[in-house]
Please model this.
Amino acid sequence: MTWNLWHEFGPFELRREAIRRVIERENPDVLCLQEVACRRIGTTVDTFAHDLARDLGLHCFVSDGPWFPRASGADGESAMGNAILSRWPILSTGQVALPGKDTDAGYRKAVHVRLDTPWGSWPVVCTHLNHRFDESAVRLRQVDALADLIRDLRGDPASDLPVVVAGDFNAVPDSDEIRRLTGRTEPRHPNLMMSDAWEQRGEGPGHTWRSDNEYQIDAFWPNRRLDYVFVSWPRPKPMGHPLHAWLVGLVPEDVDGRAVQPSDHAAVVVELRVDR
Model:
């Protein structure tokens, strides 16, 4: 499951309970989160992802600062991070800074983990790319950096588990950056591309940025598919093939008698095959 949580915008104290309820109901094995609220207080980092992990009994890894947007470093100042939560223990962790504009280079990140699953060590990446309409060229550099990371993580494509990459790419499926990832244009590395799980097993357009979301009434972008779950190819067939893909977080949750929309994005949930 992947979900952009919209930081602390809107009625966050109510939204955080609505978010928790949706995640608890879906009960994902692996959860990739973007725009996670992060605060550094002294030497301690406090994040909403850690709260969710404690509530739901999951293992957790959250990106470390400097976060996006740039924080001054003052105690308690809130910023955004990425996180991966997992039912299975986390064997190793890492993060890489993605290319950016001169003014924000290094503040967008890809976090990655290796999970100790019943089928072996499974690499997972969570990321969040630049968001502006006019930053396709930046996102192209970012997906190339992702491709370098995926190449380094995937091991032997004929026998090792594929890399799962999830997040908010802020790009539609026919954009140059998504076409580069999925092999519709020349990929960064030969013999390495990503399968789009929604394209394979989702029904309908799969819009995750939607005009029926109350937070998007005045948005520039309504009705776009911006959030993805990808699986690396080639891979040992049929391991990692998508079986189903669906959206959640589409409707408000009842929180203390109030109808609360959880986030400004819908979440994407994918079921993958795990038999070799």
